[in-house]
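Bumping my old thread because nobody answered last time. Still need a sequence for this structure:
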């Protein structure tokens, strides 16, 4: 397991937590969507590097 893959997965999970937090705060859907896309891309990149 490379450190880069673990780092990307960690960042993806961190951003996913932000998505949940922003959703509960009822922030604009566009902000939540961009954050969710970033989270998904980080998680996908981390999994593909494993």
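Sorry it took so long. Here it is:
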């Amino acid at each position: 397991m490379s450190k880069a893959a673990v780092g990307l997965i960690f960042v993806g999970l961190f951003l996913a937590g932000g998505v949940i937090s922003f959703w509960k705060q009822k922030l604009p859907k566009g902000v939540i969507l961009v954050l969710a896309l970033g989270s998904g891309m980080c998680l996908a990149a981390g999994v593909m590097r494993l």
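The chain has two helices and no strands. Let me know if any region looks off to you.
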